[in-house]
Every structure is written in structure tokens, then in C-alpha cells.
Amino acid sequence: MVPVIAEVDPMGNLWLADAAGNLKRYQLRDGSFASFQSDRPARITSIDCSQTLRTLCFYKESQRYVLLNRFLTESPLYDLPISQAPFSHLCLSSDNHLWAFSQTDFALHKIRLQNPEIVFSVSLIPFFTDPNVEVQCIKEYKNRIYLCYDQKYIAVFDRLGKKTEDIIMPHEGWIGFSNDEIYAQKQEQLMFRNLLTGNEKTEILQHPEKMSFFLRYSKGNMIMIGQNKIKLYKNLP
Questions:
Q1: Distance between CA atoms of 205 and 230, rounded to whole angstroms?
Q2: What is the pTM (predicted TM-score) of this model?
Q3: Domain limits of the chain?
Q4: Buried b vs exposed e over 18-41: b needs ≥16 C-beta within 10 Å?
């Protein structure tokens, strides 16, 4: 498997998806894994495994998503509302909804999870001087929505869609969270920021080959993922 998506869930399990829509969940404790592929295979655009009881797989091309339980049994294939489509990014909300971003109207939409209807929408145009910014991903963490854009910035919103903060943190198009920290990787640099204090630190990772993903699976321990290798990087401060 050559991963195009990688995520770590709260239990420390590693999730990988390839370009053909194959999904694997690895338990790092014992090396076991479980697999999933939809009855209608397609490339998975993003995975949200931040909740222990369900995992979201988003198929951008078809504007659909599935919800997987802990046995990797899929739900029905849900169609996103077409009124504001296409949506480019999705993530789970902690209150049984989805957050969806549409580049078409440059807005953040809240959608019912199992009956996909838009609950409310917030235009993000007033919060950006340039509405042509390139958004790479959105994630919810501890009742805040984090929107990554231009591979350098992270805009933070509360659950009502009000912008609360801008974080400057160069990234490769994805971010991770661990306890009270947000982290991102840019080339050999791994950057951490404490969400409570704002304190920042940077680690320089030495590796002999280009790695695609750096993910924290427990405090001080990272996973480095390349095209054909998965390595553990332990004992970071």
C-alpha cells in the first residue's frame, strides 16, 4: 500500500488509505490490522478518525461519505446536499453533525450527520482579505474548528462560525492534535504549539529519505510514513 492519507485515532491506531480507496487500520501495539473498501471503490479524499465510535470517509469526487464503526462496517453511502456543492473538505463535529467547507461560496456549513441537510452556513469571506486562498483541510478539536490554508496559516473558529484566532504554522496541508497541542510538519521541521499558552517549539527530524507523513501516536512518539516504509520516532521532548 502506498498511502495518500494517514491519520491517528485517539487510541493510537494508524489509519492509511491509498489512491484506490483501500483503507487499513493498524494497531501499533501488536501489529494487527483491519481493512475496508466500499462496495463502490473510489479514492478517499479524507479520513476523520477523531471519534472512537465512528470514522468518517469522504469521497470528494462523488460528494458522498460513509461512517464506519469500530469493526469497519460501513453505513449507507450518504449524499451531501447539492444546494451548496461541491464541498471540498469535511470533518466530524462532536454534536452529531458534520462541518463542510465549500470553495464555491467560500463558506463553512454545518450538516446533519445521518440525514444530510444543512443546519446553518457561515460565509468566511469577511474573515479573509483574499477570498482566493487555498484551503487544505478542516478539523474540529475541543469545540474549535481549524481551517488550514495556503500551507502556512490556520484559522480558528468557534462552533458558531466566529473567527477567534489566526495561527502562523507552515504545514504540508494537514495538522494533528495531541492533548493540548497542535502540530504540523514542513519538510524536516516538526512544529508544536500549545493551544492554552501559545508556546511553540520546533524539532528538526533527521531521516535518510523523504517521508510523507509525521503523526504523533503518544506523547513523545511519532510515526514517520513514506511510500514503502513506516518508522517510529521515539522519545521526542
A1: 15
A2: 0.90
A3: 3-179, 180-237
A4: beebbbbbbebeeeeeeebbbeee
Q: Among 105-109, 123-127, 128-132, which is the least confidently predicted range?
A: 128-132
Residue 127, φ and ψ in degrees, nearest 5: -95, -5
For the chain, the average pLDDT equals 87
Pick the CATH number of 3-179 from 2.120.10.80, 2.120.10.30, 3.40.50.1780, 3.40.50.970: 2.120.10.30
Report the pLDDT value the prediction gives residue 60, as an integer from 0 to 100.
95
27-36, 61-70, 196-205, 217-226 — which one is most confidently predicted on average?
A: 61-70
Q: Is the pLDDT of residue 237 over 60?
A: no
CA distance 194 to 237: 14
Residue 157 pLDDT > 70, yes or no? yes
